[in-house]
Amino acid sequence: MGKKYILPLLIITVMMLTILMDSPTHAQPNPSFIVSEAHRTITIGNLGTINVTDELTIENNGTIPVSSFKIAIKEKFVEKLCYIGAKNQEDQKLELRYLGLDESNYTFWQILFGEPINPGKIEKITVTTVYGGLITPIRGTEKTYEFTLYYYPTIPYSIKDCRVEIKLPAGAETENETSMETWALSPLTYKEFYFQYNYTRNSLIYVEFEREIKPYDIAYVKVTEAYKLKNVGFSNIEEFDFKLPEGTTRLSISDKAGPIDADISKGNLTTKTTVTISFKTGRKEVLGPNTTYTIYVSYLLPADIYLKNINTFYLLTVPIYPEVPALVTKGVTTIILPPHSKINPPKVEVIPTVQRLQPQIEQNKIIYTYYNVTSPTGNLKIKITYIVNPLYDLLRPLAYSMVLAAITAIYIAIRKVQIAVVPPTVEVPVPVPVPTPVVREFCRAYEEKMALMLEIDKLEEAFRTGRIKKKDYKRKMKLYEKELISATKEVEKVKEELRKAAPKLEDYIKRIELLEAERESVKASINQLERSYKTKKITKLAYAKLRRQYEGRLRKIYSNMDKVIFELRETTK
Predict the structure, then answer these.
(1) Worst-scoring range by mean pLDDT, 250-254, 284-288, 493-497, 516-520?
(2) Is the Cα torsion angle 138, 143, 149, 151 positive or negative in sign?
């Protein structure tokens, strides 16, 4: 054979090997791997989902390091798959890649290790899968549910020892076996089982979900949600819980009749807020069998976490899915950007369950529609970049108030964490007396200062609307400003006395100072808005809308000031 044919033959050989390696036939076992122990826990959720956790101890008995591991699921169960994920023994999330479907109707994924497993070494990983729509009620029994699943982790490696445990919801009963153990399983050993259980404490819920996200205000991202719950089981629902994103604030929960009570475990900038709604009292019949009930939720998210201004464009990072412990049969998340925004087309997201998130763009709206998701899927966030209409650049003076809000939230979060991690002590704390006269004097002085600030705001509003002449306005403003300077000096004097006499009350003082700084920022934004309107840079309609927003923020600031002073005064009782 001539030398001129050697290079083409080598290229063809490499290509053939590559094709064979990437072939959808993924069932060939890797001889360098063996699973010495597999512990599968099948947990039946009280609202109808099935959570499967596989704890796998992997041994590399080969001669070279290995950097990945394969798992498989029968195609008929992939159709019911709501979530799939993997973590290492340090609880760190591992990358998961979809490989495809083979001729045996197995869908394969590849788990990538953070670091390769060297020969003779052991690695422990946990694979979690969540299924929805597998459990169905047996009609005519009024209490019995059924499902079909498979016992063992389906992986292309041998398993030395495999334990399977089935956990029922609290109060449920079954006559089926709930634990088993077997040994020496061949690669991709597959065994289905049928399971029945009786359950009357809770029921089976399907959820339809809608989320609307509006990044209109540079300080906050506004979110509204609707959870339509459908009871398809036999019993009344006792309670329903869901989680909201990190940084959630100004939370409101209601139904069609108005506000409803809820148990709220509030998170911070790094932890999520959990909302639990009980139907045991007052609403016991609301979620009975074959009924639907809708919960409406609204809240704000801090822009410093979810909305970034980078040069000439904005980057919005927002959660798409809800976090509920039930099957979301359909969800729609709509992101409404400022009018006439120029949107960079978002990429199509393909999550590990192979669901494609194809965005639909309608003018300034980006719409995501999805099916069959559940709680763990809620961690997915979508990134969207856009350029706003120049009109909304007027909101930039609010950036300072956004920073102040971030500082406040971080300070509160750190303070809560510090309080949480202080170890208990056996010493009996000695009560530190609150200096009542100094506290009362500070509250009195500050209330006088706040009254003057409000009078100045009222005077400015009267002049703006033509209810007072310019000459009278200037005269009164000069008097009020002189009195405000005097009141501020008195507040500062008493403030220092308070700091020295009661250091533990420093938190109240800092909250007041932050609110004052936020007030100044909003006032500066209003002045900028007035100048823009007078120079005809914005329309009358836009001016009126933005003006109302700023005035609403001022009212909220004064309300918070009142609250802090009230709380401070309460320390003397």
Answers:
(1) 284-288
(2) negative
pLDDT band at 150 (very low <50, low <70, confident <90, very high): very high
CA–CA–CA angle 23, 96, 28 (5° rounding): 35
Identify any residues that bridge with 369 across adjacent strands, giving them in sequence order: 332
H or E stretch covering 208: strand 205-214
DSSP 3-state assignment of 528?
Answer: helix
Q: Which domains does the chain have, with CATH numbers?
A: 26-198 (2.60.40.1730), 205-388 (2.60.40), 394-420+433-570 (no CATH)
CA nearest neighbour of 255 among 210, 203, 297: 297
Overall pTM > 0.85 = no
Residue 354, Ramachandran bin (φ over 0: left; ψ between -120 and 50: alpha; else beta): left
Bridge pairing between strands 50-60 and 122-131: antiparallel
Strand partners, 60: 33
Tell me if residue 305 falls in helix, strand or coil.
helix
Structure tokens at 506: 């420093």
Residue 403's pLDDT is what? 47
Q: For residue range 470-480, what is the model confidence (pLDDT) as tens digits?
A: 888 888 888 88
Helix (H, G, I), strand (E, B) or coil at 346: coil
pLDDT at 562: 84
Distance set, CA 494 to CA 247, 302, 441, 497 (Å): 34, 34, 7, 5
Mean pLDDT, range 370-387, rounded to an integer: 83
Of 253, 255, 254, 294, residue with least CA distance to 273 = 253
Q: How confident is the model at residue 533 (pLDDT cuts 50, 70, 90)?
A: confident
Give φ, ψ of 258 to 5 degrees.
130, -165
Place of tokens 């398993």: 159
What CA–CA distance (Å, rounded) separates 521 from 519?
5
Higher pLDDT, 378 or 469: 469
Q: Which of 514, 520, 519, 528 is nearest to 553 (CA)?
A: 519
Alpha-carbon gap, residue 276 to 325, rounded angstroms: 11
3-state class of 377 per DSSP? helix
**H-helix or E-strand spanning residue 29:** none
How far is Cα 442 from Cα 447, in angstroms, rounded to an integer?
8
d(CA 385, CA 24): 36
CA angle 33, 36, 39 (to 5 degrees): 120
